[in-house]
Structure formats: structure tokens, C-alpha cells
């Protein structure tokens, strides 16, 4: 039996049952993390603090301080909004100086299953584009 169950996004209707399709457990957690990353803080009127503040890093020069602040921001948002995360390790890959892309790698386990999951996200900090990498 599923511990966590939620709607599959984008929302889809099951052709056989006519019900909205759902996902469970670790797949739901992974989807929730992607939604957190896809939402800028203050974007949602009803829950203004939901999401991340990754947009505040736009047009910044990548320094060790930049990487440290981005890592804290990412981990803080995930811990705040996804209660099923047990352990989390975030890696920020970027070259120092004026560059346009940063890769965020999140490795985590949940309290649902001990299997380690990985999400990779590429952020173009000069063009306001965010891409999830298939893993």
C-alpha cells in the first residue's frame, strides 16, 4: 500500500477508468522536488513562500560563495517543502567566473524507501531557463 500518493503532473486522465492518474511513494517525492524547483518563491499567491529563490542567482558571477549560497537555498527549500526526505546531499557544478550554466545534482533518500534517488537540474543563470536532465 502506498505511503504517499499524488496526482501525476502534467495532469492526465486514465483512459480506462476516467480518473486522474496518480503516482506513489518515491516517484511522488521526485515529482514534488521537481515542482519545488520549477516554482519561484512568491509565484503562487496562496502559498507565497513555496518554491526556491533560484531566480535571485540570475546574472551572478560564479564564486565559491555563490555555490555555497545556492546549495543552502536548494537544500533548505527541499527540506521545508518535502517532508519525506531523510538524507540529502546537493552538489553544484559550475566553472568559476562569468558562465551561463550551473548543474544542480540532488542525491537523497526518503523515509519511504532506502533507495537513493538522484535528480539533476541544469540552470542557465543568464537566460532564466531551467532544465531537468534525464537520469
Automatic annotation (TrEMBL):
Q: Name one Pfam family in it.
A: GPW_gp25
**Start and end residues of each IraD/Gp25-like domain:** 25-112
**InterPro entries xref list:** IraD/Gp25-like
Q: Which SUPFAM superfamilies match?
A: gpW/gp25-like
Domain of life of the organism encoding this protein: Bacteria
Protein name (Swiss-Prot/TrEMBL):
GPW/gp25 family protein
Per the UniProt record, the lineage of the source organism begins with: Bacteria, Bacillati, Bacillota, Clostridia, Candidatus Paraimprobicoccus
